[in-house]
Amino acid sequence: MRQEYLILTRFKCEKLSAKDFCEKTRIIVTKLRRVIPYIQELYSWGKHEEDWMLINTESNNFCESILSHIEDKKINYENADSNDKSLNLNSKSFKGFRNSYSNKKNGKNKITISISGGGNKGQCMVNIKFSDVDFLSNNYKQQIKNIFNLLCELTSPDNIAFTNENFMLKTFLQPYKFHVGFMTYIKDEIINDFPQKIEKEKFKSGTLFTLSKEIPVHNEEQLVNTAIEIRNLIGSKG
Hints:
By secondary structure, the chain is of the alpha+beta class. The chain contains five helices and ten strands; from the N terminus they run E-H-E-E-H-E-E-E-H-E-H-E-E-E-H. The protein folds into two domains: about 1-155, no CATH class; about 165-238, no CATH class. Strands 3-2-4-5-6-1-7-8-10-9 form a ten-stranded antiparallel β-sheet.
């Protein structure tokens, strides 16, 4: 079984209405489709199996079409009428909103984009999961760098990391709120502070660094140790 890979993006965002969140989502998934192969069609997952449906990101009714997909029945939503706790396009939530989109339900070259945020914490996330994807096999660095470049333009992120679940579990540590992956972007120009063995460059408004020239088939201990070293270095700078 081939490894699933992830791009994890963290960025600050204000508290959003359901409409604003859906519109931000529409822009992100529309632009990502242009740089990620295999996304000819896009489906919304919603909260239940029966919610799965084909979506049109160019539609004027996009927000209305996915409104039920971002609804959490356990939440009392914030509305102009304080007695109204239901979800509408102008509603806000202390927890924010979330939804996922895929090019297919399962199988080879499945890509899933999950977006969440817009709540009181002021933090948003865009996570992209690649399941058994061919295009990462050749020149993965340029492919991922292109996606990083677009995510920087769309979200002004604090951190982007290309990783897999096992590597993430071995290298992530609370209270640090960032990830270090095989390729990582940090919104700080700290390029001179990294170990000499690390491939690094100034990128957008921060630093881009790469741990491996090829996608590791296994999570080599040396890569894990290097990632932890960098994580501690960045964490020590606050």
